[in-house]
Design goal:
The complex is a heterodimer.
Chain A: E1 4-5, H1 11-22, E2 24-26, H2 27-37, E3 42-43, H3 49-59, E4 62-68, E5 74-80, H4 82-107
Parallel strand pairs in A: 1-3
Antiparallel strand pairs in A: 2-5, 4-5
Helix pairs in contact in A: 1-4
Chain B: H1 2-15, H2 17-41, H3 46-57, H4 60-70, H5 74-92, H6 94-123, E1 134-137, H7 157-166, E2 170-177, E3 181-187, E4 194-201, H8 205-209, E5 215-216, E6 232-235, H9 237-244, E7 254-257, E8 260-267, E9 283-286, E10 308-314, H10 320-337, H11 345-353, E11 358-360, H12 367-404, H13 406-414, H14 419-457, H15 471-497, H16 501-507, H17 514-550, E12 561-566, H18 578-592, E13 597-603, E14 612-615, E15 617-618, E16 628-634, H19 638-642, E17 646-649, E18 663-667, H20 668-674, E19 684-686, E20 696-702, E21 717-721, E22 731-736, H21 740-754, E23 760-765, H22 766-773, H23 775-809, H24 811-819, H25 824-853, H26 869-895, H27 899-905
Parallel strand pairs in B: 4-9, 6-8, 16-21, 18-20
Antiparallel strand pairs in B: 1-10, 1-11, 2-10, 3-4, 3-7, 5-8, 6-9, 7-8, 12-22, 12-23, 13-22, 14-16, 15-19, 17-20, 18-21, 19-20
Helix pairs in contact in B: 2-3, 2-4, 5-14, 6-12, 6-14, 6-15, 7-10, 12-15, 12-17, 12-23, 13-16, 14-15, 14-23, 17-23, 17-25, 17-26, 18-21, 23-26, 24-27, 25-26
Classes of the chains: A alpha+beta, B alpha+beta.
Chain lengths: ~110, ~900
């Protein structure tokens, strides 16, 4: 199956949305979830998730704490903060505006 | 506020960065493992699954770095690395480091110490409200009491009141007595009198300056309203501490000065030392009380007793020009308006031409500043040169080291380090060196500034100047340190990173840039030598000035004279009281009769204590030039005590009494200029006016003696016996034989036998007093000598370092020369010749600079011209000799090269 790269700039949005839906996840789950829900169309370059998560930690959009996985392994779980939720809304509305605009351009015959 | 919490998170990360890296590592590992398991479940072979997982993940190391860098501490961590590396590099070559640190510490320490004194003396604003709006009438170069007309440096109290009332430009005005009254007083209930410095001020003094009392109140206009009406005083924080041990019940305590009990009404704040930098009064007393404060001047109501400095605060929006116009207009009006103004045609003309110059006084008044600002500037320049020499030296050492490190740097560049990155690292190393030197320098400056203050003070008691470390000083030192780091670090850093990689890697010792490097190094040495020569010439000039001053014939014999001061005015003797003469005479007799004492005398002045001068009129001598004469009032044995030889006539004796004809003795120069024909003995002259020309008879002529300064030309001086010109005399001179320390207690006892209340102070020797009068010349001579030697030493290290390097580089060449038959002496000459060329060019430049620059110091010199050939020659010879010694060792090493070893080395 052909896989598509995530459009630049939307990685944060995807992570934020994923976390908003799931509550808390570790890195591997976030990557898996994005891939799964997008029905394997969107492909996160898995490693690039981590620098992005670090930047989100700095911004205070997410917070992290250590927990245990189902397989009894130590993993770092990420969780949205209030600031993160606000950021999600901003990014979402911005994304919709852009997409809407692109769609309009494309649909105008 | 979001950025603040973000900064907080970033800092947290910095502190816990090892933990963060470990967390990230663990997280990524988990990810890879889970992926691998997933792929295995999907049917991949375990070994393939591992690679597939890694491939999907991307470059883990790069991602880790990227995550790490996301926190934004990259630069900082590099800096920490570089600093670490710099410290290690310093420790690796301890010799270089010690020399560099030492020269930096000395240079930076000295410059900081001198700056701290400059700061305290010249730059710091008074600790008062808005000091930038304060102005002074005149420039405070005069002090004392004048009765001249018209005077524009000192003002009378009535003039102050008129100016205060009529001006439109000042929000407030105040008047300050131009001298400090050094009196003795005692806190009520104590018997012992203590020395107290009183500053007489008008009632507006504190309010104009905007200074609030720390306890109680300050002086007010009310205190200054009625003559002798308000015996009140504000005490300084220091006196309160020193004399009352900060007694909280200080207010309303009584203080006896002379006949009067003063009430302490307030304590001034700790940082307030008055308006004269370098003097801090113990007491402020209103001018209305001046007659009650010894020596009991009485100028409160006198229109032409000019003794005050006037200060004022400009009204908001008023410019200096407007203020000056108004003040000058009023100056003319007020002086003309006084009913007792001596408005002769001549005086009116003089008045028309006299102007009052207003000067800003944000930094306060200071006699010390006048005396020491030139010397300090010169020393600053000297120490700046020393620092430059030190920088050149360190640059050279770093150049030498970077050659040794060429291989290391080449390896780094080959491994991908950018040039800017390497330059940054090398500069950081320089900065570490400079900061370490600067820190040592600050430590050094703490001690040095105190030493400097002692040199400036010139006597036992230190001038009250605050030279302690402060923020401004630290910033100055930091700036100097950074500048030095840039000066000595930049060129070596750029040099070291500019190399052809392959050559350096191949050869190990980069020979490519060697030619350029040694040229640069030699240029640095030449400049060092030039600067050193300039400093040596300066030091030589100042030293010779000091020697010349030491050899000046003072006219008196400065050896074996004890001198002290007594203060009869503070213990109830009145100025015209015959008891005063009796007191002086008894003390002279008692002290003079002590074993080991040859002679003793009272006098108004000894040396360098100011002057009392007037115009005199000589009978039968037309007034066609300046007939200003300095007066001294002395006891019978003054000339024997001081060792001033009598040239003609007789000295004072018991026949010269209060009722006998007025007599005087005159100086050689006065005899020659005012009595040009025949002997002056028996001729008459007088002060005050032509009608008094017959008042005083000349009975003797004495040799010229220095009056106020060693540099002065022979003065016209006359001497009166105190039996006929009775006034307060404070100076006692005692010519003694034997040990100073043994004679002092017996002299004290003899004086207290006559009056046990009489305060004694300022016990010293005449020699010391003479020495103190040339404190600034001594300061400049000693310090410039020190800096000159330091510069010479640094230049030697420079020469030695560079020549050692040159010899090392040329070892193989020398080997070949010797193999081909060159003798040791010719090899020695080969190296020495190079040194000679360096030194000669340095000297040539230095001589030119010294020649051009030494006119700047001419007013600090005495008895020689700035372009003094002897000094120039000796500085050159010293430099050549020392350079030859510094260069001899490398040259000798070159001559001892074993040709076989040298050639095998290649």
């Amino acid at each position: 199956m052909h896989r598509n790269e995530i459009p630049p700039g939307t990685l944060y949005l995807l992570i934020l949305k994923t976390l908003a839906r799931a509550g808390q996840m570790h890195g591997y789950e976030i990557a898996g979830s994005i891939q799964h829900i997008s029905e394997n169309v969107l492909q996160v370059e898995e490693g690039s998730l981590y620098p992005a998560l670090q930047r989100m930690l700095i911004k205070g959009w997410v917070k992290a704490k250590w927990g245990t996985t189902a397989g009894n392994r130590r993993a770092r779980y990420y969780q949205l903060t209030t600031a993160g939720r606000k950021q999600l809304e901003t990014e979402l509305s911005q994304f919709e505006r852009v997409i809407g605009a692109i769609t309009r351009v494309l649909q105008t015959a | 506020m979001a950025w603040l919490s973000e900064l907080g998170r970033r800092c947290w990360m910095l502190i816990r960065r090892r933990q963060f890296d470990a967390d990230l590592e663990e997280e990524m590992c988990l990810h890879l493992e889970l992926k691998e398991q997933e792929l295995v479940r999907a049917g991949l072979a375990p070994s393939d699954a591992r690679y597939a997982a890694l491939r999907r993940f991307g470059n883990a190391a790069a991602l880790k770095e990227k995550s790490h860098m996301a926190w934004g501490w990259e630069r900082f961590e590099q800096l920490v690395q570089d600093v670490n590396y710099g410290v290690r590099a310093m420790l690796r070559s301890p010799g270089i480091t010690i020399v560099a640190l030492l020269s930096l510490a000395l240079g930076i320490g000295a410059i900081t110490a001198i700056f701290s004194l400059m700061d305290a003396l010249m730059l710091r604003s008074l600790p008062v409200k808005d000091p930038g709006r304060l102005i002074l009438f005149g420039d405070a170069t005069w002090s004392g009491i004048s009765d001249g007309f018209p005077i524009n440096q000192l003002y009378s109290y009535p003039f102050y009141r008129e100016m205060q009332k009529k001006n439109q430009v000042f929000s407030e005005m105040t008047a300050v007595f131009s001298m400090t009254n050094r009196v003795h007083g005692s806190v009520e209930g104590r018997s012992e009198a203590e020395p107290i410095n009183v500053q007489l001020v008008s009632g507006t003094y504190f309010s104009m300056l905007g200074v609030q009392a720390m306890a109680g109140r300050t002086l007010t206009e009310e205190d200054d309203r009625t003559r002798d009406g308000n015996p009140v005083a504000v005490v300084s924080y220091f006196w309160w501490t020193r004399s009352l041990a900060r007694d909280p019940s200080v207010l309303n305590k009584k203080l006896r000065i002379g006949e009067t009990l003063f009430t302490i009404v307030g304590v001034a704040p700790q940082e307030f030392f008055g308006t004269k930098v370098g003097e801090s009064p113990d007491l402020w007393i209103p001018l209305s009380m001046q007659k009650e404060v010894p020596p009991n001047f009485d100028g409160y109501g006198d229109n032409f007793s000019e003794s005050l400095y006037l200060m004022a605060r400009l009204k908001p929006g008023v410019s200096m020009g407007q203020a000056s116009a108004d003040a000058n207009l009023l100056y003319q009006q007020i002086l003309r308006g006084f009913p007792d103004a001596p408005l002769s045609q001549e005086n009116l003309e003089k008045l028309r031409q006299t102007r009052v110059d207003l000067t800003p006084m944000a930094t306060g008044l200071s006699a010390l500043r006048r005396q020491f600002s030139d010397p300090l500037k010169i020393l600053m320049a000297a120490v700046g040169l020393v620092l430059l020499i030190a920088c050149a030296n360190i640059a050279n050492l770093l150049l030498a080291r970077s050659t040794a490190r060429a291989r290391e740097l080449a390896v780094r560049q080959a491994l991908g380090a950018g040039r800017t990155r390497l330059i940054r690292q090398l500069l950081t190393e320089s900065l570490v060196l400079a900061l370490a030197g600067g820190a040592l320098g600050v430590a050094l400056a703490l001690g040095a500034s105190r030493l400097l203050l002692r040199l400036v003070s010139g006597g036992q008691e230190a001038v009250p100047l605050d030279v302690s470390m402060n923020l401004r000083l630290l910033l100055f030192t930091l700036a100097i340190t950074l500048v030095t780091a840039v000066l000595f670090g930049t060129i070596p850093a750029f040099r070291a990173t500019r190399l052809q990689l392959t050559e350096s890697l191949k050869e190990g010792r980069g020979s490519v840039s060697a030619g350029g490097r040694s040229l640069l190094a030699k240029a640095l040495v030449v400049s060092q030598i030039a600067f050193s020569l300039v400093l040596l010439v300066g030091a030589g000039l100042f030293l010779r000035t000091l020697i010349n001053l030491g050899n000046v014939d003072t006219g008196f014999n400065r050896e074996n004279v004890l001198r002290l001061q007594t203060d009869a005015s503070s213990v109830g003797y009145k100025e015209n009281d015959p008891r005063l003469a009796a007191l002086y005479q008894q003390i002279e007799e008692r002290v003079g009769a002590l074993p080991g004492v040859r002679a003793a005398s009272y006098s108004l002045f000894t040396y360098n204590e100011g002057s009392w001068n007037n115009t005199v009129w000589v009978q039968g001598y037309a007034v066609d030039k300046d007939n200003n004469v300095k007066h001294n009032v002395v006891g019978t044995h003054y000339f024997a005590t001081m060792g001033i030889p009598l040239l003609e006539g007789r000295t004072f004796g018991s026949q010269d009494t209060a009722t006998s004809p007025q007599v005087a003795m005159i100086s050689e120069t006065m005899a020659r200029t005012m009595f040009p024909k025949g002997s002056p003995i028996g001729r008459h002259y007088g002060r005050i006016g032509p009608e008094h020309a017959g008042d005083t008879e000349v009975i003797g002529v004495v040799k010229d003696a220095k009056f106020e300064a060693l540099q002065e030309d022979p003065q016209t001086v006359d001497y009166y016996p105190y039996s006929q010109q009775l006034r307060y005399l404070n100076d006692v001179e005692v010519r003694y034989a034997g040990d100073f320390d043994a004679i002092v207690p017996s002299v004290r006892r003899a004086i207290h036998d006559v009056d046990h209340n009489l305060p004694i102070s300022h016990v010293t020797t005449l020699d010391e007093q003479v020495g103190r009068s040339i404190a600034n010349q001594r300061l400049v001579a000693q310090l410039s000598m020190f800096f000159g030697l330091l510069a010479l030493f640094l230049a030697c290290i420079g020469i030695y370092g560079v020549m050692s390097y040159v010899v090392t580089r040329r070892t193989s060449e020398i080997g070949i020369r010797m193999a081909l038959g060159a003798g040791r002496s010719s090899v020695l000459w080969l190296v020495l010749r190079e040194i000679l060329i360096l030194v000669t060019s340095g000297v040539a430049i230095g001589v030119a600079v010294a020649w051009a620059g030494d006119r700047l110091v001419s007013n600090l010199l005495f008895g020689l011209k700035p372009s003094d050939p002897v000094t120039l020659m000796s500085a050159t010879v010293v430099l050549l000799m020392v350079a030859a010694i510094a260069g001899y060792w490398p040259a000798r090493r070159a001559s001892l090269v074993n040709p076989i070893v040298a050639l095998r080395c290649e």
